[in-house]
């Protein structure tokens, strides 16, 4: 443990260590390069299927019938989703859909309404 290393940008742990050119957090296993934490905090850009930039609170429309994992339900094309929240990960939109409840969507399957 070295005091000159920055805290983990993912979990704020102070136990970061160097592994080659990477910095590593032993608590959450997050790895990053020195200096990259500033660009990650400045904000990620999430774009819809048409290339429009999405922001928290936007309304989107589903552009493709989507099967709901673990259910026989399908989200139909044209379903409107209001007040989205952008999150990290493969499914980068967190939202609530009327009739379905909480759901995570990929931005590539929506367009800005």
From TrEMBL:
Pfam families reported in the protein's UniProt record: YjdM, Zn_Ribbon_YjdM
Domain (Protein YjdM C-terminal) ranges: 46-113
Gene3D superfamilies the UniProt entry points to: 2.20.25.10, SH3 Domains (2.30.30.40)
SUPFAM superfamilies the UniProt entry points to: Prokaryotic SH3-related domain, Zinc beta-ribbon
The organism's place on the tree of life at top rank: Bacteria
Domain Protein YjdM N-terminal: 5-33
NCBIfam families per the UniProt record, alphabetical: phnA (TIGR00686)
Family statement drawn from the similarity comment of this UniProt entry: Belongs to the YjdM family.
Name this protein carries in UniProt: Zinc ribbon domain-containing protein YjdM
